[in-house]
Specification:
By secondary structure, the chain is mainly alpha-helical. The protein has one domain. The chain is 79% helix and 0% strand. The longest helix has 21 residues. The radius of gyration is 11 Å and the shape is globular.
Length: 71
């Protein structure tokens, strides 16, 4: 696994864990929600921008996308 792929995975994991914590749901449920809505892929596609920000920025990005999609 490349360093970039590990970093992308880290961004996804942080986003999932923070999302689960904020909304009081199990991490497995948050991960399933991310996967169903393509959030994991979106975070990986935006790696170049997100990896220059604090880790919680991936969560904020995911939260914003999900709020729009789940309306």
């Amino acid at each position: 696994m490349t360093k970039r792929r590990r970093d992308e995975n880290l961004l996804v994991v942080v986003a999932v864990e923070l999302y689960a914590g904020k909304y009081g749901i199990p991490t497995a449920e948050a991960f399933a929600l991310f996967r169903e809505n393509g959030i994991n892929t979106l975070i990986r596609q935006r790696y170049n921008a997100l990896h220059t920000q604090p880790l919680d920025e991936a969560f904020h990005f995911a939260d914003d996308v999900l709020k729009r999609r789940l309306k």
